[in-house]
Request: fold
Amino acid sequence: MFSRKIRVLHIIASVDPAYGGPVEGIIQQDRVSRWIEREIVSLDPPDAEFLHNFPIKTYALGSYKTGQDWSKFLRRYGVTGKLIPWLKSHVGEYDCVVVNGLWNFSTFAASRVLPGSGVPYFVFTHGMLDPWFRDNFRAKHALKQCFWLFSEGRLLSRANAVLFTTQEERELASTMFWGFEYNKRVIGYGTSSPPPVTAAQEGSFRATVPQLKARSFLLFLSRIHPKKGCDLLIEAFSKLASEHSGTDIVIAGPDPSGMIDGLRKLAADCGIAERVHFPGMLTGEAKWGAFNCAEAFALPSHSENFGIVVAEALGCGTPVLLSNKVNIWREVEAAGAGFIEENSLEGTTSALSKFLNLAPEERQQMKLNARNCFEQYFNIEKNVEAFEKLAADTVGKQ
Reply:
């Protein structure tokens, strides 16, 4: 494909695993890439603990900020005086650049340096142009339109390609902002095959949720955020809990929005407090134990561009119960790997009910379908080749 490895710089706000999908996607791609050598520049503080064993060389140029509201905003946005000079000095050392995500200082810095640099670059939006944000946060959307005109829009309009994981994500993004046109490209995405199943995985998971004991459960495993539909999951399950007394719900993940106390109260108000478990963020063997032990994985999200966790569940042969706002729902439905419903209480209840009422042999077939769905659509060893070819073709034209 290429006479040497292509040097790619990834620009991203953070490589903290608590932020989920984008950084996990970079790690998984790097594990299977044959033709690409990756490095990362981020807004993380250089002494961040999660950098100690991070598998890709990362230049962490951020710093924590303290003080009044304005400085809190700067910290959230990730402002640092180091990134723009660093990019100007080093971007020419790479064959191409991938900007991951939008609406933070790393994309502003990229918009100041990459256009006109002579280095080809791509922007992976990672679902950040989904209309859900516009429809639910009108004031923020108006502010983002301003940013779009002097930062993000400029960045995207000069990119060699703006990358989307599905055709649906691409089409939804087209309605979001005015002022710039850009080259849209759908490219495959996925994750590596899960590790082999071991008894240690289940033991590690069960140890994080001792109250669950050996009961069966439905799993939510993702960042806990208003758009993810955790409230729908709890309310929907409460309507079915008495009929399925041997099954609980596990809601696992980091809670940057501070939602867990409210979700615990909701579970108590619904009369199922003892049936809903919150083990926090699961990693390593505990995470794989959760996926492998779960009867099904549930994600009734209001907005989800891809969902690495969905691909991970499918890779484990775990059926998935999704809303039709998870942009890979069509592939799941076509494969018979789960149930798809509206992102509403009625829809979520229907998806859970359909699954919980399956006969054992039907559940077993759905597990086989889930694994086949992963291999057909979401195994990164197949999907990474598409980006390698895009990068090689683009670099070769320079």
User: Anything to note?
Assistant: The domain at 199-378 is CATH 3.40.50.2000 (Rossmann fold). DSSP finds 16 helices and 13 strands in the chain. The chain has two domains: 6-191+380-396, 199-378.
